[in-house]
Amino acid sequence: MKSTALANANIALVKYWGKRDEKLILPQNSNVSVTLSELSTITTVEFSDDYDEDIFILDDKVTSGKDKERVLSQLDMVREIAKSSQKAKVVSKNNFPTAAGLASSASGSAALVMAATDAIGLNLDKKDLSILARRGSGSSCRSIYGGFVEWNKGEAGDGTDSYAKKIESYDYWPELRVVVGVVTLSEKEVKSRSGMKQTVETCPFYDGWLKSVDKDILDVKEAFKNKDFSLLGKTSEHNALKMHALMIATVPSIIYWNPSTIRIMNAVKLWRENGLESYFTIDAGPQVKLLCLEKDEQEIISRLKAVDGVIDVISCKLGRDAKIIYEHLF
Ligand code: PMV
Questions:
Q1: 193 ligand 1 Cβ < 6 A
Q2: Average pLDDT, stretch 166-182?
Q3: Is residue 329 in a domain?
Q4: Domain boundary residue among 108, 140, 172?
Q5: Which CATH number do you get for residue 113?
Q6: CA 172/CA 270 separation, integer angstroms
Q7: Average pLDDT, rounded, for the chain
Q8: Is residue 284 in contact with ligand 1, taking CB distance under 6 Å?
Q9: Which end of the chain is less enclosed by CB atoms within 10 A, N or C?
């Protein structure tokens, strides 16, 4: 009744921003991500009659409030499928700062559903794991897989056709790198969940976003197919800027950038003009992720470290599928 899973974070190249169903966590638009090798969550889940209530310990702290509620509601879904009422102890560790826009909810929710379903004796396939992960945090349905991943928005009202699928495996494009520039260790002020709801309700440009996203998806898939780094980078950077334009034009406006975020964005454009090809993407937080090729990785790392306000740099390859591991956290 005890299992441990490891899942990697992912970064969207074509973003998910806005739900068509708040409860089931169904997106307004399909989206595409890359799984990141160096950012991961390990989670151990044990179901036992010895526990009177569910316990959730994240990064050595007993957790309450919204974070715990999210874990409990996913445990309840797993218990419902398994027809069990046993309480659980969940211990989870991120190897990177939690909730600052490095997709900790994605790797966290994917590791949780994989460990919990295994611990309770369910043998779910990846499609069902992806659907369960989605119910914790939308983007986490993509963290079940490594490599390049697409979350198809689906059409069904009950969400049964809204899950992630692998486009290409982790070893498909070995030269590709995602270099993360960490510019803060604080938690973000506006969580994605409430931020995207506000955008759908108030942003006058939201229709324009929905109309343009499918073309971005076609372009990144074309870029994967031909290993066309320039097309991949241009499309991803433009898509991220479009999403941030939506956020800025939301009422009240949501601005996730800090001065270092903008410094990096400007630097990357300048490097590109001078022949060093790299592109940025940014999620719901101030951290910046740079796409580059292996030949430029060391140069990008050292230039990024030199930008004022950059606290840490983490260079990632494409990460692998989430998996069960045999070293438990307790
Ligand atoms: O899955 P959530 O609720 O953490 O939202 C993710 C939103 C973005 O990271 C900004 C975009 C994405 O597709 O991951």
A1: yes
A2: 97
A3: no
A4: 172
A5: 3.30.230.10
A6: 30
A7: 96
A8: yes
A9: C
CA-based nearest residue to 111, from 183, 208, 19, 8 = 8
Domain housing 29? 2-172
Report whether the peptide linkage leading into residue 252 is cis, meaning its omega lies within 30 degrees of zero.
yes
The percent of residues above 90 in pLDDT, for the chain, comes to 93
Q: Does residue 78 sit within a domain?
A: yes
Residues 56-114: pLDDT tens digits?
Answer: 999 999 998 888 999 999 999 999 999 999 999 999 999 876 655 676 789 999 999 99
- Tell me: do 87 and 224 sit in the same domain: no
The token duo for 288 is: 């910046």
Q: Give yes or no: residues 191 and 298 share one domain.
A: yes
Atom in ligand 1 nearest the alpha carbon of residue 10: 14
106 CA distance to ligand 1 middle (Å)? 8
Last residue of one domain, picked from the residues 141, 172, 203:
172
Residue 71: name the closest of 163, 143, 11, 135 by CA.
135
Q: Is the CB of 35 under 6 A from ligand 1?
A: no
Measured in angstroms, how far is the CA atom of residue 308 from the centroid of ligand 1? 27
CA dihedral 219, 223, 226, 227 (to 10 degrees): 180
Q: Is 137 in the pocket of ligand 1 (CB under 6 A)?
A: yes
